[in-house]
Design a protein that fits this description.
Dihydrofolate Reductase, subunit A, 25% strand
């Protein structure tokens, strides 16, 4: 396989939401996760060579993407951004904590790329106007990333799933209902719209973890 093993991991509510409202940090709803769920999440981080989130997640959540609740090495942080629109004071650009790869398209200005490199990040160009995830994943594999954890957001999840690039999905189900027509769910995008087009997964494991239910799926 000329790409890493791709594992999407996400917390979701009973009604499949990722946040309390559009534009609200997922850190708010993640406060509901108990210690067992956090350890489950961070064990996966520690097992992976890389961890990916989209630029919108960086702008809204400002995550660290490090291993904290368990012992383990921090994975390489991978941030795809077609426009290069990531704050230069974002936590993921603190490369003293963990290495970071910023993936950009060819349209990102040279001075922006220079600014990322000055922060200590490695910059990978993949795609002309938008990130080409197939090309990006090949480059990540060549960098030694064999297993890549994806923690969102919904647009990154959609791009990976629609391009048949996801091997496994693991969901941490929070026992709450949020509601809301425009609240982000696991994926966004235009959707598949027919049964023939939907991407199919098979159940690997279902179990209780603290006050959450974990469901794990493998690609069919």
């Amino acid at each position: 396989m000329d790409r890493p093993y791709i594992l999407i991991v996400s917390e979701v509510t009973i009604d499949g939401k990722l946040t309390l409202a559009k534009g609200v940090s997922s850190k708010e709803i993640m406060k509901l996760m108990d210690e067992e769920a956090n350890k489950y999440l961070h064990r996966i981080r520690a097992e992976c060579d890389g961890i990916m989130v989209g630029a919108n997640t960086v702008r809204i959540d400002n995550p660290n993407l490090t291993v904290r609740y368990v012992e383990g090495k921090n994975p390489i942080r991978v941030i795809p951004t077609s426009s290069g629109n990531i704050p230069l004071d974002a936590n993921v650009l603190n490369t003293n904590v963990a290495p970071t790869v910023i993936a950009v398209s060819e349209r990102v200005p040279a001075d922006r790329i220079k600014a990322f490199k000055k922060k200590g990040a490695e910059v990978v160009v993949a795609g002309k106007e938008r990130i080409d995830f197939v090309e990006l994943l090949k480059k990540l594999k060549s960098m030694g990333i064999e297993k890549l954890m994806v923690e969102g957001g919904s647009s990154v999840n959609w791009e990976l799933i629609r391009n048949d690039l996801v091997d496994e999905i693991r969901l941490i189900h929070l026992p709450v209902v949020v509601g809301g027509d425009d609240v982000p769910s696991l994926t966004s995008g235009e959707g598949f719209k027919t049964l023939d087009a939907v991407k199919r997964f098979r159940i690997k494991r279902v179990f209780q973890c603290g006050n959450q239910v974990i469901t794990e799926y493998l690609r069919s």
